[in-house]
């Protein structure tokens, strides 16, 4: 195992975020993230779970530089990124991407899928012919037919739109994608297909995911490690098998009781695959 395998890709250390709270006065603030620390290793999925309002999206936004930190720091690949703005922040797009819950809102309805997916690489100076080749590979990777390229977001289902958003996130070949509640608006079978797709993409590309969801069943299906947030505080952070088998905190136990296991046989299959990934470094870029 090399040093690069053991160093975290993302290192969130003691992060605090305050938001204005006008109900308590003009200058009042509320602390919505309080001293949160976690890491994401190269090629790993860390699930961030917690009920609505616990601060999951805020942590994703802090990583993306969209929520200023009141304290703490965030490093990507060993480099401090929490203070970056302007051009320095934009340059991070080659390493750090995001997929949001609502692809309807995040995909420009007036742009073709071709332009949506290729915009970041065309803007970065990639020649058209090369970008077109990349588009064909990406559409194939997210299991959409080639003629998708000439169509518009409004012509697709929610699951298909999320595949387009994933293709767009992948086009710069990032090392980390923040996935903010990306399956929450989808029906159960579409959720499962998108989760399968992400696991497949991770196996093929080694991309790491910071994956937020209020649904522990979803988190359990996709994550290697899980962080449990409650009212802006990190209650637990560890291997998903340990945290879900013997949760240290009563809140995690309550979340677990609320999480239906849709298909136990499938869960077992996934767990076996993840176990193999954890014990056989050749099976996955994930190392422990
Ligand atoms: N721009 C904002 N201004 C003020 N308060 C905010 C802002 N954005 C979020 N909050 C508050 O911060 C807290 C955390 O919100 P956040 O959206 O991060 O939670 P969440 O766990 O992602 O919830 P959900 O699953 O409902 O999206 C909530 O109390 C929310 O009301």
UniProtKB/TrEMBL annotation:
Any one Gene Ontology molecular-function term assigned to this protein's record: ATP binding
ABC transporter domain: residues covered: 17-256
InterPro entries, alphabetized: AAA+_ATPase (IPR003593), ABC_transp_ATP-bind (IPR050319), ABC_transporter-like_ATP-bd (IPR003439), ABC_transporter-like_CS (IPR017871), P-loop_NTPase (IPR027417)
Alphabetical list of Gene3D superfamilies matching this protein: P-loop containing nucleotide triphosphate hydrolases
Keywords: ATP-binding, Nucleotide-binding, Transport
Record's keyword annotation contains Nucleotide-binding: yes
Any single Pfam family the record assigns to this protein: ABC_tran
SUPFAM superfamilies with a match to the protein in the record: P-loop containing nucleoside triphosphate hydrolases
Family membership: Belongs to the ABC transporter superfamily.
Protein name per its UniProtKB record: ABC transporter ATP-binding protein
């Amino acid at each position: 195992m090399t040093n690069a395998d053991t160093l975290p890709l993302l290192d969130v250390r003691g992060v605090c975020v305050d938001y204005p709270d006008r109900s308590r006065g003009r200058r009042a603030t509320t602390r919505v993230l309080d001293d949160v620390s976690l890491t994401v290793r190269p090629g790993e999925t860390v699930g961030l779970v917690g009920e609505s309002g616990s601060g999951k999206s805020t942590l994703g936004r802090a990583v993306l530089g969209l929520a200023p930190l009141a304290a703490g720091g965030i490093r990507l690949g060993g480099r401090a990124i929490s203070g970056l703005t302007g051009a320095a922040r934009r340059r991070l797009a080659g390493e750090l991407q995001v997929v949001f819950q609502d692809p309807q809102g995040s995909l420009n309805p007036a742009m073709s899928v071709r332009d949506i997916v290729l915009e970041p690489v065309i803007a970065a100076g990639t020649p058209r012919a090369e970008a077109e080749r990349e588009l064909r590979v990406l559409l194939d990777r997210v299991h959409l037919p080639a003629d998708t390229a000439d169509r518009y977001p409004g012509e697709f289902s929610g699951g298909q739109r999320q595949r387009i958003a994933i293709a767009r996130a992948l086009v710069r070949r990032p090392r980390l994608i923040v996935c903010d509640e990306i399956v929450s608006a989808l029906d159960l079978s579409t959720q499962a297909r998108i989760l399968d797709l992400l696991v497949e993409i991770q196996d093929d590309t080694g991309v790491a995911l910071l994956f937020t969801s209020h649904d522990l069943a979803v988190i359990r299906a996709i994550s290697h490690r899980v962080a449990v947030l409650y009212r802006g505080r990190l209650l637990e952070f560890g291997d998903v098998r340990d945290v879900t088998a013997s949760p240290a905190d009563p809140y995690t136990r309550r979340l677990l009781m609320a999480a239906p296991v849709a298909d136990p046989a499938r869960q077992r299959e996934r767990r076996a695959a993840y176990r193999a990934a954890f014990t056989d470094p050749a099976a996955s870029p994930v190392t422990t």
